[in-house]
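Tutorial sheet, problem 5. The two components below are modelled jointly, 956 residues in total.
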Amino acid sequence: MSQQPNTPPTSGRLQLNAVSKSFLRRGGGTPMLAVDHVSLDIPKGEFVTLLGPSGCGKTTTLRLIAGFEMPTSGQILLDDQDITNRPPNKRDMGMVFQSYALFPHMTVFDNITYGLELRKISRQNIKEQTNHALEMVGLTGLGERRPNQLSGGQQQRVALARAMVIEPRVLLFDEPLSNLDAKLRVQMRSEIRNLQKRMNITSIYVTHDQTEAMAMSDRIVVMNAGHIEQIGVPSEIYRRPASRFVADFIGRANFVETQIESVNGDGVTVRLLGQTVTVPMSTRPNIGDKFEAVLRPEGLKLHNDPSLQQVLVEQAMYLGSEIEYIVQANGKSLIVVDTDPRSEFVYSEGQTIGLGMVHETIQLLPLAPR
Amino acid sequence: MSTYTRQFRRILQDPILAIALLFVILFVFVAIIMPLLAMIGESLSPAGLPRFENYLSQPAFQRIITNTVVLGLSVAIGGTLLGFLFAYVQVKVKVPFKRFMHIMALIPIISPPFALASAIILLFGRNGMILKGIFGVRCIWGAGRSCNDIYGLDGLTIVLSLSLFTVAYLNLKGMLEALDPALEEAGTNLGGSKWHVFRTVTIPMLIPGLAGSFLLLFVEAIADLGNPLVLGGNFEVLSTRIYLSVVGLYDTTGAAVLSVILLLPSLTIFIIQRYWINRASVVSVTGKPSGTPQQITHPLVRWTLFAIVMAVCLLIILIYGTIVVGAFTKVLGVNNTFTLQNFDFVINGYGSKAMIDTTVLSAVATPVAGFLGILIAFLVVRKTFLGRGLLDFATMLGVAVPGTILGIGYLLVFNNDLTITLPFGGETPTIITLIPKLAGGRALLGGSLAIILVFIIRSIPAALRSGSSLLAQIDPAIEEASISLGADNAVTFRKITLPLIRPAFFSGLVYAFARSMTTISAIIFLTTPQTRIMTAQILNEVENGRFGNAFAYCVILILIVVAAIGILTITLGSTSGSTRSLEGGR
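Model answer (structure tokens):
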């Protein structure tokens, strides 16, 4: 596994310029906009995740990049070349499918050589590269097996090797881990990430699993209803969500309405749950503007402190690594997660207790008109 | 609409795909749409149109129409019941000899036309070996006009049900096997008795299959020509009347009018079957069966069903036995001397040309039909283009349209050179022959091209159906994977799609060959002195009462088909496909 990749791909910058895709509805009617003016600029070697709920257009976006769908409008550029109308077999992209899509009538070895054989490479080289790919994904010795003689995790590795061995300019992943069990999923995601880093191939990864996205990505593209909600590095997406949708979809969040009390320096002051809180903010709102505070459950703390707002513990769930509470504050239910391992701070249902906040975790969002 | 133009541009980007699509559309148009349109056009011509009223008002013709419908209904009921019985016993009842029953149910697939009818005549006819020979029953004239013999509706129902029930059997067997045992378990668990569960769970789940088989058998029965011709007696149906109009009266216009009358119910039922029954199917939703199906062990039910099925099996053996024995006998039932003359007649004598011609033409048609069927399946299932549903439908017309009708269409279209006269060219207009004369006397290659065309168009639907149902089960991502790795459509089709649907291809080939060798109705008008077809020769022998020769033809025909299946199995190395072929057909 210490071997260097043969020849690292020389390029792989991928750009999407206002790409849209609409599908005709069955039986006529207005076309459905599956991808809505999506623009992306992905430098070579970056690992970008398209993250969103099912039906948000992430898979369609990936298939547009792969060339299996044609955009209704917009442009796709690969290394500054317009590939919008280029057929998928001429795009030099490797794809790992959700169902793996291994060729069932071929051996593992033949599956991996398939792409190489289409590339006018000498027999000897094909053999070497295939063996190297097998070794990279830890399947040495299984080359003669048929896909149906492999476990799910092994099939996944074959699919990975098959897509990587052609050293494509871009690697595309369509929810590749969703058919694996939880433990294997965690293991595979770090393997994929390590291989991708070593080979330095631009990668687009589609998933609806936010943990997977956080763990693997350089940048995350959160999608909703066909458009991009936010693009950013994982910590930014989590700590500074740009919209209520992102805050809600990535991790869990409590939403509490509030209004601006004063604007000072590079932040604003608001009243939240009986406390005056100063939150950094780049824009300059007016005093009295209504906002929505995003309170992460782990940013809320239960203390035996009478000076804090008193809340009623409605439900306490012991989850092993953490305790999850649902508390009542002024008629509003909030989720509080406590990861403190000390057992003396376990509160029981029906108890009244003070609620504190870690101010740095608070994010203010303009109150969306509803 | 821009989506369609984009799809179109997409297809044009791949010239091989575009050419394949164009070729397929052209082929289907020439081989099926044009003959049909010509036939309909002829019936609506000034000479044809008044005859609709003429025919429909005559009591004699009304009786023919009634006969046709009654025959269709009784065969549909008889064949579906028989198929259901065999399927139910096979899947749900604990009885011995299941393998034997299964094989017996498959045997009628390879039944040369007339073979069953002739055997039945020899066994149960007026001078039949069983009624007269064993029981000494003479023809007893009943209260009315008819004699209690095998000719007519009763004999036709028995023979047609026996020759057609295999489709219903395979169809229902598949459904019964796919039926999730948990459903019946749930019914029992809620307190239902076995009989109650059978009535309220099993049967309702099978209704699409039962209805589908019923309609299919109805269409097949009213389209059949060979059996009514031999076994009909005074019981005349539309297909025989069409045949006699052409062969006896040289009245193609009248035949076209009658064809349209026959085409209407056939097409209506085909459309119902295709768009309604297939959608009503509930079994496919349940997915993989969980648990083991419970079998019926009640002794009375078990052994009654066993006895009925075994009796039918014995009847099938008796019939096929008669065919084989008859082929080696001078005049079965009259002069039971062993002889090889019949085979000599077929192999070395007059029949050898028919044997060779039929085999060669079928062998030419088979790979074409198999390949085209799979290609159309690929285009229809995997590619999006305007009119793809239409292509599928038009291709399926190859079996939906009764053979006699197709034959008349071919006679009408291909009886002359098809030419176009170019509008420019000055004094002498340039005439370009698009399609040379394919049918009738002095046709190209002795009319063999038209026959091959019929063989192909009648066989493509089976390959199309088995191909598209198998393709639908294959994840499209597998082909996309190939394309994303750099392969174009043609390479992907050759290296990925074709190997994956090899069982369907194999079954398509088997079906095409068997169907081509045994088809009669569609080619009966297309044989010429230069091109002889075995089935037409069998008819000739049967009509002249030379059953020995007819049986020898049948035995040799069966042997050729079996040998061809053997060769295909060895070369394509697929044994699993052989059962699938039978399911995919018709």
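Marking note: The longest strand of chain A covers residues 32-42. Full credit if you identified this.
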